[in-house]
Amino acid sequence: MFSEYIHAALMLAEYDTLEDGSYVATVPGLQGVIAVGDTLEECRMDLIEVIEEWIVARLQWGNSIPPIGGHTIACSKEPVAVVD
After folding, report:
1. CA–CA distance from 9 to each of 38, 48, 50, 67 (Å)?
2. Eight-state DSSP code of residue 68
3. Which of 8, 53, 68, 83 has a CA-to-CA distance to 74 between 20 and 30 Å?
4. Which range marks the domain in which residue 36 is found?
5. Contact, 8 vs 66, CB < 8 A?
6. Residue 70 has pLDDT above 70, yes or no
7. What is the mean pLDDT of residues 75-80?
8. Rounded distance, CA 24 to CA 36, Å?
9. pLDDT band at residue 77 using 50, 70 and 90 as cut-offs
């Protein structure tokens, strides 16, 4: 579930070159997701890590995660019954 969501986010990623020649990436709809790298590949790898951390933080805080390309991530707040 996470990998499909991250892949969909990467397909929407927007990359720009900074004045120093490094790269910055954002994903429309994922507020606060910003990655940087000296090369495009470093920027992309950083973006994957930032998206992963963003998902985990939103789940921990009980915030919703917006759908991307038909992919969603949801977590129930209902307790799970343990059966012995």
Report:
1. 21, 9, 11, 10
2. B
3. 83
4. 2-61
5. no
6. yes
7. 66
8. 4
9. low
Each residue of 27-66: pLDDT tens digit? 999 999 999 999 999 999 999 999 999 999 999 999 999 9
- Give the pLDDT score at 76: 67
Number of independent structural domains in the chain: 1
Question: CA-to-CA distance for 17 and 28, rounded, in angstroms?
Answer: 17
- Asked if residue 68 is part of any domain, the answer here is no
In a domain, 80, yes or no: no
DSSP 25-63: EE-TT-TT-EEEESSHHHHHHHHHHHHHHHHHHHHHHT-
Residue 81 lies in a domain: no
Residue with tokens 């933080």: 57
